[in-house]
Specification:
Number of helices: 6
Oligomer: single chain
Distance between the termini: 64 Å
Number of domains: 1
Order of helices and strands: HHHHHH
Shape: elongated
C-alpha cells in the first residue's frame, strides 16, 4: 500500500503523459500476468476441492446405503448433505480477486487513453487489492483441501481395514 500511496502522490502531480501511458501499460501487463495465474490456480484448487467433496459425499452415501432399510429413507436428504455444498459466499470471495484484476485492467486502459494519473493510481490500488485477496483466500483453501484429503485418506483406510475383517 505504501507503493500505491507513493504512486498516487507522484503520478497525480508532476508526471508527463508519456510516463503515465508507459506505467499504465506496465500495470496492464502485470494485471494480465496475475489474472492468468489466478485463473490457473483457481481452477486447480477448485477442481481438487470439488473432487474431494464429491469423494467425501460418495463415502457418506455408501455408509447411508448400508444403514438404510428402504429406498425412500436412502433418498431423504440429511443435514450433512446440505453442508457439503460450496457456498455462494465462498465462491464470491474467491472471485473477488479476479474482479479486482479486471477492474485494474480497465483503469489502466482508461489511464492509457486519457493519460490520467488518477486512473493509474486506481489501477495500482485495485491490483494490490486483488493480489491481497488472492493470497488471503488461497492459503486457507489450500489448508482446508489438505485437511479434507487427510480425512478422506483416513476414512478410506478405516473402511478398507474393517471391510477385510470377517
Amino acid at each position: 500500500m505504501f507503493g500505491v500511496s507513493f504512486a498516487g502522490v507522484f503520478f497525480v502531480s508532476g508526471s508527463t503523459s508519456e510516463q503515465i501511458t508507459q506505467a499504465s501499460q506496465m500495470v496492464l501487463q502485470f494485471d494480465s500476468f496475475l489474472a492468468g495465474g489466478w485463473i490457473v490456480g483457481f481452477f486447480f484448487f477448485w477442481g481438487n476441492f470439488g473432487k474431494d467433496l464429491r469423494e467425501l459425499r460418495r463415502l457418506g452415501y455408501v455408509t447411508k446405503a448400508h444403514s438404510s432399510k428402504e429406498l425412500a429413507e436412502y433418498f431423504k436428504e440429511e443435514s450433512w448433505e446440505q453442508n457439503m455444498r460450496i457456498s455462494t459466499g465462498v465462491f464470491a470471495i474467491l472471485a473477488l480477486g479476479i474482479v479486482n484484476f479486471v477492474a485494474s485492467g480497465f483503469c489502466a486502459v482508461g489511464a492509457v487513453l486519457s493519460t490520467n494519473g488518477t486512473l493509474l493510481v486506481l489501477a495500482l490500488a485495485t491490483s494490490v487489492a486483488g493480489t491481497t485477496i488472492m493470497l488471503q483466500t488461497w492459503y486457507p483453501i489450500h489448508d482446508f483441501t489438505n485437511m479434507l484429503t487427510s480425512i478422506l485418506d483416513k476414512i478410506v483406510a478405516y473402511a478398507q481395514t474393517h471391510s477385510d475383517s470377517p
